[in-house]
Amino acid sequence: MRALAGENEGTLTPLSVIAACQVLGVSRASYYRQQSGRPLPLMGPPPPCRVAGRALTPEQQQQVLEQLHSERFRDKAVPQVYATLLDEGVYLCSVATMYRLLRKHDEVHERRRQRPHLALSRPELLANGPNQVWSWDITKLKVPYMHHTAVGMW
Fold it and tell me: Domain map of the chain by residue range?
């Protein structure tokens, strides 16, 4: 790459890496990557994430879920389950790990039935005459005229 054949067959003219890459249509990064001797990155799916050494085994995870799903803890919050088990001398995992397991199984949500929020509208008052609507001076009041509002008109 450093030299290119000159006009005469036997002579070589020095050539810069930039010029040689331009002549050959090769990226300079590709040239330097080949020169470094590093292996080319493999294409394909990324390697799987490493599992932490202290992570719970599937059997331990199942044991924690069985405790959380048991009849006595059915209506308890995770911190209450954790405290009760600690009082009995049983340590399965931390509160955060319990929440992580429940979230993994899509079980972290409000367990009670929820009333949907009502769409409340702001009350609008219409004054047809004096002393019908009392409001602060900064509040805009509707008046019987089309597309008009009055501030302290009446």
Answer: 3-36, 58-104, 126-154
Question: Token digits for 22?
Answer: 């331009």
Beta bridge partners of 86: none
- Nearest to residue 125, comparing CAs of 154, 96, 98? 154
Give the list of residues 6+ apart from residue 12 with CB closer than 8 angstroms, or none: 3, 4, 5, 6
pLDDT along the chain (154 residues), means of 10: 51 80 89 79 78 89 95 92 96 95 89 79 76 67 61 50
Question: Smallest Cα–Cα separation from 124: which of 114, 136, 133?
Answer: 133
Q: Would you say how long the chain is, in residues?
A: 154
| Rg of the Cα atoms in the chain | 38
Say whether 50 sits in a helix, a strand or coil. coil
Query: Can you state the angle between helices 58-69 and 78-87, rounded to 10 degrees?
Result: 100
Beta bridge mates, 149: 142
Q: Which residues lie across from 4 on neighbouring strands? A: 13
* Neighbouring-strand partners of residue 12: 5
- CA dist 114 and 118 (Å) reads 12
